[in-house]
Amino acid sequence: MPNQFRHRYYCSFGANIDARCHAEQVLTQLLERFSTVIVSSAIETAPVAIDTPNRFLNWLFILDTPLPPFELKQLFNQIETGEGRNRNAVNSKYRDRPADLDIISIDLLPVGLESYLTPLWQQLTQGLVIDSAATLNLGESQLSQRAATIHLDASSGHIRVVEHHPQRLPDGF
């Protein structure tokens, strides 16, 4: 089998409509598609550039895939639509949403992150523990205060969560 070039994608998730439920569903879909995903904790944040009383749930994630950026963004849009986001609504960028997946950077460490994402990035790169993190359930596993690499065994359907205690981001999967 020939080697395929793989991109490392640094991405974000945000939602402010039934956020915890959609976060868990989106993460499950990402695992079903990519088998392994590195994730930060999920945190609640105030809305940015959107006028709403609804707080957001945000987390960062990293995945390696041979998909080109355009195809990955298309997949993200399909996941968002499947979760109930109406991407055709006027000013959909400024509306409450059940899911918002963005590619932050490709193959290079992100720079210039929104300030509300900084603690999540520090968690991924420096092992920061976030005491106020929201708990996400994945089958019988939970994500909470530490970054983790999540593996899905496609044959059994079992999810394995490996929390990161080292003070750096893992180099590979």
TrEMBL record:
EC number: 2.7.6.3
Gene3D superfamilies for this protein: 7,8-Dihydro-6-hydroxymethylpterin-pyrophosphokinase HPPK (3.30.70.560)
The organism's place on the tree of life at top rank: Bacteria
Pathway: Cofactor biosynthesis; tetrahydrofolate biosynthesis; 2-amino-4-hydroxy-6-hydroxymethyl-7,8-dihydropteridine diphosphate from 7,8-dihydroneopterin triphosphate: step 4/4
GO biological process per UniProt: folic acid biosynthetic process; tetrahydrofolate biosynthetic process
Keyword set, alphabetical order: ATP-binding, Folate biosynthesis, Kinase, Nucleotide-binding, Transferase
Domain 7,8-dihydro-6-hydroxymethylpterin-pyrophosphokinase: 10-111
Enzyme class: transferase
UniProt keyword Nucleotide-binding present: yes
Single GO MF descriptor: 2-amino-4-hydroxy-6-hydroxymethyldihydropteridine diphosphokinase activity
Function statement: Catalyzes the transfer of pyrophosphate from adenosine triphosphate (ATP) to 6-hydroxymethyl-7,8-dihydropterin, an enzymatic step in folate biosynthesis pathway.
Family under the similarity heading: Belongs to the HPPK family.
Name this protein carries in UniProt: 2-amino-4-hydroxy-6-hydroxymethyldihydropteridine pyrophosphokinase
Species, as recorded: Ferrimonas aestuarii
